[in-house]
Specification:
By secondary structure, this protein is of the alpha/beta class. Helix content is about 30%, strand content about 25%. It folds into 3 domains: about 1-200 and about 415-425, Domain of unknown function (DUF4445) (Nucleotidyltransferase, domain 5); about 210-240 and about 355-415 and about 445-460, Nucleotidyltransferase, domain 5; about 245-345, no CATH class. It has 13 helices and 22 strands. It has a 6-stranded mixed sheet with strand order 7-6-5-8-10-9, sandwiched between helices. It has a 6-stranded mixed sheet with strand order 21-20-11-12-13-22, with helices on both faces. It is globular, with a radius of gyration of 22 Å.
Amino acid sequence: MFKCTGICSECGRCKDAGMIAGANDRKTKLLELPDDFVPAKGKEGYGMAFDIGTTTVVGMLWDIENAELLGAAAKTNPQNAHGLDVISRITFIGENKKNLSVMHDIIIECLNKITQELCGKYYISTSGIIRATVCGNTTMSHIFAGYDPASLARIPFAPAYTGTIRMDGKKAGLEMAANGEVTLIPNIAGHVGGDIVAGILASRLLSKKELTLFTDIGTNGEIVLTDGNRSLACSTAAGPAFEGAAIYQGMRAAPGAIEKLKIEKDDVLFKTINDVPPVGICGSGLIDTIAQMIKAGLINKKGRISDPEKYRQAHNGSQLAERIREGEAGREFVLVYKTDGEDIVVTQKDVREVQLAKGAVSAGISIMLEQLHKQEKDIGGVIIAGAFGNFIDKESAVTIGLLPEMPLEKIFSAGNTAGAGTLMALADEREAESVSVIPSAVEHVELAADPEFQTKYLRGMAF
């Protein structure tokens, strides 16, 4: 499905050189490009492709003359000083009319630092950058372009602009040739942004002939469904559970976070990021934990953690029952006993947070399937984008009902499709033309307007 870019360590040839450590020190594959992507060589000069994520900002340096990706770098999005999520940042901007400029200047400075770092590494003058392409979720794109994102936080969540935005390097404030071309990839709707448009391009989603689901799950779960004729997109308020927030001992994917977990007989086995002592649990570890507890019968279909005595009786005196206890906020299950601090647990509230998140995603998929007159069993493939897709265990995601029940070999983790699509639009004019028309080829579905949404949402919460 994808070809080697020369910067991915999957085959072992490139070692760690092709891995990028983001805001959380967790190294991920940078990107994968489709087999049919063959960029044409161009005039002398260089380009920068930027993927502005809410948490992490990635920049890639492209040699236009030789059609070659030279390198990439990532930094924590410094806007997080004013909020870890887009709503917090929109609120901050709304508190003072000067704050939009503050947030804009912060992200421009970050992009310029990435450009300086990469150009310095490859002995290139920043004035040699003659082209830049940028993508981000709708809020990040608004801030980059200098538009007030306030309308994105209120019904009907309409963006302040539509279409592709183009400007020169001087107007953009970027470290590059003053007359260089800067392109901001367009959004589809208020909460389906240019990062999803770039992902649609990179995954060649609109050329699929079978029913295919594309999803990028974070605080907002963006979902695109295509049957080869119609393509639909929606955004679900999945909430922060899958990013480790709103979870009792949840955390971002940083060293010490439990990222994988398995229950074998009476033992709880786990792996932490960087293999250091556990201090909490991140999104992938949480999904594994819930899936394993379901399989072990520790959680029922309604999401209730079992009574320890009833569990012991039903499971031949299983010692797992000893891990079920009453905590300050209700029943909880102990994952790790610690002698030097608080035990690491999953609480009943944590389970509910996961149910709420996956219920929203499930409802979105169900509504779009109905609009295409299809059923879940008709889905021929699932593409999971973003960092979440790099680390999630596919079987666990299916077990908890986050993804449709289907053969695991039909579920693909596509890596940073936003970055890949942005690079493609930078590197080839044909791809740039394709990405500019994607929003007009995708119908936006407003889930809140569907009378069945609440029913499907509640139904989707069940395991």
